[in-house]
Amino acid sequence: MLDPLGPPPAWLRTFVEPYALRLNSPTLADHIHEVFLAFAFYQFIHSFLSPWLSPILFPTHYNKLNARTKLNWDIHVVSLVQSVLINVAALWIMFVDTERGQMSTGERVFGYTGACGLIQALAVGYFLYDLIVSVVHVNMFGIGLLFHAASALWVFSLGFRPFVNYYAPVFILYELSSPFLNIHWFLDKVNMTGSRVQWYNGMLLLSVFFCCRLVWGTWHSIMIYKDMWYALQQTWSAAASPLQAPATVNAHVFRLDSGSVCIDETCARANAEIARFKDFTATGVPTWLVVTYVTSNLILNFLNYFWFSKMVETVLKRFRTPAASAGKPDQKENVKISEKKDLHENIPQGVILEAAAKLEEQEGGRGELGLTPEQISSAIDAGLGEDLRRRRAELVAKVPLPGS
Questions:
Q1: pTM listed for this prediction
Q2: Which domain holds residue 219?
């Protein structure tokens, strides 16, 4: 599938191409305009649209925020818009890009389509914005988010070689959980902590996080490891070729036909585009590049499992019996049973909201998490805490004082 937005202006492509070739990223010259447009769009939302529109939509909340929280608000608006747009674009391309769907094993590593290049460009534009924000406000957000932004920008930029262009929309779908995470943050800021809306959103957040990051992400990590192992074998085979033989992997990678018959020029161009950069990738993929991708992918998967384990830990805490109040054994047991029953009646809502808050905390939250999980738990049902205090008071009143 060709790039839906078309090529950049000729003057821009001519200007960028020498630098792109020097960086071993030839496809960057075809998508540089999309990188710039994405960066400018997100910066516009951050600097102008969100500060202008948020006070209109949320006049009683946004204007009362301090400067730090307003900055976080604007950043979360950018993150929400970006995650929705790029997820929609990635899903659309995965369904309509027939050339991508017909790629062989080698083509999934060395091949290229303009549509997948668009996804890479949009991601690079966002991470460039994210990197600048992290640098400018490093004292506020910390060095961790700075390294995260730099690493994400680096990894997605390597796709302009082209390298694993096929997997660009696949791994972008990690972001499917981000809209729900941002909505969870906004609900805290508009005094809807513990509401039914936040509970339903939290259920979606945890479900989507598990499905897209753990199930989907792990499966496709295995697939990309297999494809890269194939690519390395072709590289080593080409490197071991006799000196008089051309060192190329193209004969083992690109097929002579796509398996379908084209009836128009657009289809023919789209199929030819897969092998467009075969001269650049003829010597195969360097080992360091595979090591970089595998290492980055393993770290990201480890973080996803770590974050989810923290969420599970938060859930399990809600099922533990609370500490008993002071009193006689039978009265102590009555308090324990009363608290346990009341707590379990509210577990579904409490579990979801506390786990969602834990995920917000583990993923960074830009240093402004709002309420802690404990505060959220107490806000889930005000009647629960009040009822427990009333019951404790009644039980204590019935306990005879010493010496009476």
A1: 0.78
A2: 10-307
